[in-house]
């Protein structure tokens, strides 16, 4: 005799799938479209890109004097909250909603309609989260030009507004049917969207803020070079998700993005070492770490459009303009504290142009200059100029408005000289005082 419980169980197994198919066929179709391998890779890539922001905190934190290490690292870590939450609230919709030429709409505000349905071969919610990690690190990148002299509250307000007014529209321009994507601009993983955009904002912010109080007066040496190397290593590791994950699938294109990410920075390191040898006679650890970042930035727009040999060429060529610009910047009055424009703005622009040169039709479907399509280089240049001009102008306006409302972007001069860690956070990265000793006496 069959027990009632077992009979109900068999009925559920037989009837429920049919009811789901009858009542929600679109849900079944969406689940069928989702590939578990692609989803697993994109879950991994999302975590890898999120790790990059922590790596950036170490990279930037090691480069500054010890009195500003916490403030500098906090500028990266606070982006997890500010840029991440605002991306979910409105940024994703402004970037990927609607079909306008310049900005999306608010149809997906508060993630309305963003759930487990398929977006390509992965869940829509995962695509949104992956893109959110890009918004976070782009905001954090700008902080390298601001360290040591900007009120923390003003910085939070800036990245909040900038993410919605600048970053989200530029994403729409390139990756969501906007005017640059319509022109055929190539940007596989964010050379223009992330790096030119952040570099331009960093340049504008450095000019608006002016130099640090002791800039040019005393040497501002990195206080912890091992932190810099650790940060560079974490960035390189995370960048495999940044570029390889931008294929949105665990396929040959994703493999190409990962492999080009492996080789391009290596080529930059080799050329940077030769430049350092012939210029100063030595290869510094900070120089090597900077070379890694420049190479990673340069291959970002090209990673899914070029061969590994093309990636090596891009990494090697990108070393020259960034190296000589950074050398010039250190002797100038421009206090782009951690060379965000030199590494990311120039590195991203060079990489974007060279994408138009080395793009291989067999890899990403678009031919570049070397395959008889010089017009692609022109399109790349237009994209760079468009993003750079918009980002600079909008950044200046945002900072001026915040400064006017908040009573200034910078703390008092004497407080700034004391260090941003204590005045902004009430903490020190390294204990320098004698501390307090509690003595318990017998009654």
Number of helices: 17
Number of domains: 1
Report the top-level CATH class. Mainly Alpha
Instruction: Write down the oligomeric state.
Output: single chain
Question: What's the CATH topology name?
Answer: Ammonium transporter fold
Shape: globular
Distance between the termini: 81 Å
Spatial arrangement of strands, main beta sheet: 1-2
Radius of gyration: 24 Å
Corresponding CATH architecture: Orthogonal Bundle
Instruction: Tell me the strand percentage band.
Output: under 5%
Instruction: Characterize the largest beta sheet: strand count, sense, and whether it forms a barrel.
Output: 2 strands, antiparallel
Which tags fit this structure?
single chain, Ammonium transporter fold, 1% strand, globular, disordered N terminus
Structural notes for this entry:
This protein is mainly alpha-helical and 443 residues long. It has a single domain (42-425), classed as Ammonium transporter fold (Orthogonal Bundle), CATH 1.10.3430. 69% of the residues lie in helices and 1% in strands. It has 17 helices and two strands. It has helices at residues 4-23, 25-33, 36-63, 69-96, 124-142, 152-175, 179-183, 191-209, 225-244, 252-279, 285-299, 308-329, 340-358, 361-364, 375-406, 413-418, 420-425, and strands at 118-119, 122-123. A two-stranded antiparallel ribbon has the order 1-2. Residues 1-5, 7-12, 14-24 and 434-443 have low confidence and may be disordered.
